[in-house]
Amino acid sequence: MRAKTFTESGRRAQIVTAAIEVIAEVGYAKASFSRIAKHAGLSSTGMISYHFAGKDDLLAACVAEIERVTGAFMQPRIDAADGHVGQLRAYVESNVALVSEHRAAIRALIDLVKNAGSQSTAVNERLAVFEEHFRTGQAAGAFRPFDPRTVAIAFASGLDAVVATAAAAPEPAGPTELARLGHELAELFVRATAPDPEMGACEAFCACPHRSGAGVPQDSEGESR
Description:
11 helices; about 70% helix; elongated
């Protein structure tokens, strides 16, 4: 198998970018090769077929590119935040701010996952990542006792709703407004998960009814029943 030339890699990237923009504009169902080729300034759809085995191959490349730009935008901001609460806030604020920088990518990913059955590793793994973050945060005393899985689902759903609404707005919100929305949503989740100020870290962790073995009835000798 020969390596792709610089020109071929550039052409693939051009086609992927055009496909993402077309899907964001008209949706997956109407994103035909002819429409994508025209948007990319290609002479024929044959150029797309040359670089991609089919539509599924092109869509997979689109999802991979969206995950790349999303990670490049959000991850440095999350990594720069301190502690569980700081990273929770950074995740929310950077995800909402992402709409301003990569609105087409967000719109396209939402459409692909919903209507094309495309699989996004980043999207599929989020709940497990959120749940683990809340669980380790509870152990560190950063979050109050709650069921990490339930809160992870609520967190993902709430964040998705705000991001999807902002991305779908006919008149895109500017960076300032998105920053306000991100701050409001982050503050909501930070306050909802904050520990009782009168409860210490050990007490908070031990009081969590969903940690392993917690809440299990025991007999008088301490054995679980």
